[in-house]
């Protein structure tokens, strides 16, 4: 029994590859039907909790139910069916309530001989994948690729002579070589662009510049100098100005300043002053 158990052990990679090729269909477990897709969902989640060699699978049924968003009874029936077909081997049962059972991922030798499930070959599995791919390939139409704006800017369209008759400049006969010309370039030496005339190249003359000396009206007069010398000057700022200390606080934690009428600015202090009786008035007798 121990040799058979060691022979059926499978790693997570081997187990999930075989699981993908199994067709469970809809099976009945404990009197209730369970879909093959739900069985695969539970099995894939169990493999996530296993070590790389397929050992120590013990997440617990409540955790599997919550992870797969199914009820507890569905998770329990899925684990029971995986154990029944030999894909899970019970290693150790929970010792007491609150402790989960421990399983080992396995691939039984008799898996291909079972009549209640179908195991596809790798070639059959690849063929079905290609069939689904071909069925969905015609649904999507490839969008034409829009040209890059940068490529359009770099390309220059050839000039159409038929459409640009108005912009063409008639050729003029060349002047003889012995014709006397003044020094410097003239207007006829410049080939005007399409649509431009000789008058467009003329430079308008700027107004003449006045080079006569200007009078300096910004010089101060004698009266201004006299006023500046005898006028009052601003007091220079003290290098070490004295900072007046902040007023002390009263017994109530407020400012101890006084108002214009001489009473404290603190309302509580004014209340205490009003509550105190006035000093008796002593009459002063005049000397007779």
> What is the CATH T-level topology of the domain at 2-125?
Arc Repressor Mutant, subunit A
Name the poorly predicted regions.
none
If you average the pLDDT, what whole number results? 75
Question: CATH superfamily membership of the domain at 2-125, which one?
Answer: Winged helix-like DNA-binding domain superfamily/Winged helix DNA-binding domain
Largest sheet: 2 strands, antiparallel
Work out the number of β strands: 6
Radius of gyration: 53 Å
In which range does the helix fraction lie? 25-40%
**End-to-end distance, in Å?**
141 Å
Structural category = mainly alpha
Write up this protein.
The longest helix has 16 residues, at 122-137. The model has no long low-confidence stretch (mean pLDDT 75). This protein has a domain at 2-125: Winged helix-like DNA-binding domain superfamily/Winged helix DNA-binding domain (Arc Repressor Mutant, subunit A, Orthogonal Bundle). The protein is mainly alpha-helical and 288 residues long. Helix 4 crosses helix 5. The chain has helices at residues 2-8, 12-21, 36-49, 61-68, 72-84, 122-137, 149-154, 222-230, 267-275, and strands at 22-23, 27-29, 32-34, 88-92, 102-105, 118-119. The strands form three sheets. A two-stranded antiparallel sheet has the order 1-6.
How does the SSE layout of this entry go?
Elements: H1 2-8, H2 12-21, E1 22-23, E2 27-29, E3 32-34, H3 36-49, H4 61-68, H5 72-84, E4 88-92, E5 102-105, E6 118-119, H6 122-137, H7 149-154, H8 222-230, H9 267-275
Antiparallel strand pairs: 1-6, 2-3, 4-5
